[in-house]
Amino acid sequence: MAPILEIEDLKKLARRRVPKMFFDYADSGSWTESTYRANESDFAQIKLRQRVAVDMTNRTLATKMIGQDVSMPMALAPTGLCGMQRADGEILAAQACEKFGVPFTLSTMSICSIEDVAENTSKPFWFQLYVMRDREFANSLIDRAKAAGCSALVLTLDLQILGQRHKDLRNGLSAPPKFTPKHIWQMATSPRWCMSMAQTKRRTFRNIVGHAKGISDLSSLGAWTNEQFDPKLSWDDVKWIKDRWGGPLILKGILDKEDAVKSLECGADAIVVSNHGGRQLDSASSAIAMLPEIVEAVGDKVEVHVDGGIRSGQDVLKAMCLGAKGTYIGRPYLYALGAMGREGVDRMFEIMRNEMDVTMALCGERDVHNLDRSNLRSVFGERVE
């Protein structure tokens, strides 16, 4: 096998090894996918400032996110169906996070449950909550996260109504997959994936089945999930969740400075500038394009994080230069899982860490805390003075 040197290598390998319906789920956006593409391409419009003849020894990427020590300024983002990229994917990714000293965020729509991950890890992880119409179930998710020792709650605000993703509809995506001739063929041409799936009992949404009222098997799950995302979600609900949770709260899906200001009133400990990876409002601005004005509006009052389009350690540093205090990595680790399982996630972290370290040195910095706009030459074509 050719050496794995960059995230694109993991993506290419995952495309070959994961059934098309699940690879496409990870590698797609809504409608025309213009926002999905902009999330990536807008990073290329940020140019770094090279410095020479400076001391580059004793470098450190260590920092804090919501007061927690992290070895580098990143967490793994909450991603649904992670356990369909590779069997037990959420557990494998959480274990890699423990090894590399960064937070893992478990999605409500994960394949492995809160309890599954807690039983197979030794350090606290973060839990991401979707607010459902069934408030009793939402309360139970919060209580289960508390019982599992989760150290932060990430509340996603931008999925009140599901954006249409053409690839998922065309593929007939489901977990576990349907057994139509098309799906059987996809699985038959992914023998590594099939072997891993044959060795696990975790093949459906285990945070939901057996926990939500009236959901005991797969036959009732599809209708329930389609009906349960709450279009009435309000800032008052955010305050209720903050009170119920009682711990660090991160609000994910902020893409406008007015919403960023409102998040302050709800007691958020951090906000994530995010457009859901380009999977919700197509033609929205990229997350990195919106980061500077949101940092300017609230960055001195709340910790600002960002996700969407990050495909390298350089992208992480560019976000830090624009004022982010942390970043979230989604698709790169899904590619890594699909490509090589736990070994792939380890390799992804090694790649990202090396890219951050070398880039920071060539920018003339030794400590990630020192990065700011002075380390940039231009942003979206405008020169940084």
Describe the structure.
The chain is α/β, with parallel strands linked by helices and 385 residues long. The chain has one domain (9-44, 71-308, 324-341): Aldolase class I (TIM Barrel), CATH 3.20.20. Helices cover 42% and strands 12% of the residues. The chain is built from 16 helices and 13 strands. The protein has helices at 7-17, 20-26, 34-41, 89-100, 114-119, 135-147, 166-171, 181-188, 191-198, 218-228, 235-245, 257-265, 287-298, 313-321, 331-340, 342-362; strands at residues 46-48, 63-65, 68-70, 74-76, 105-106, 126-129, 152-156, 249-254, 270-273, 303-307, 326-329, 376-379, 382-383. Strand 10, helix 14 (313-321) and strand 11 form a beta-alpha-beta unit. It starts with 6 loop residues before the first helix and ends with a strand. The model has no long low-confidence stretch (mean pLDDT 94).
Helix-strand blueprint:
Blueprint lengths: L6 H11 L2 H7 L7 H8 L4 E3 L14 E3 L2 E3 L3 E3 L12 H12 L4 E2 L7 H6 L6 E4 L5 H13 L4 E5 L9 H6 L9 H8 L2 H8 L19 H11 L6 H11 L3 E6 L2 H9 L4 E4 L13 H12 L4 E5 L5 H9 L4 E4 L1 H10 L1 H21 L13 E4 L2 E2 L2
Parallel strand pairs: 4-11, 5-6, 6-7, 7-8, 8-9, 9-10, 10-11
Antiparallel strand pairs: 1-12, 2-3, 12-13
Report helical residue fraction: 40-55%
What would you call the structural class? alpha/beta
Q: Rough shape? A: globular
* Rg over C-alpha atoms, rounded to the nearest angstrom: 20 Å
Number of DSSP helices? 16
Distance between the termini: 46 Å
Order of helices and strands: HHHEEEEHEHEHEHHHHHEHEHEHEHHEE
- Biggest beta sheet summary: 8 strands, parallel
Q: Give the overall average pLDDT.
A: 94
CATH topology: TIM Barrel
Based on the structure given, which CATH architecture is correct? Alpha-Beta Barrel
Beta content comes to 5-15%
Q: pLDDT under 50 segments (min length 5)?
A: none
- What's the arrangement of strands in the largest beta sheet? 4-11-10-9-8-7-6-5
The number of distinct structural domains comes to 1
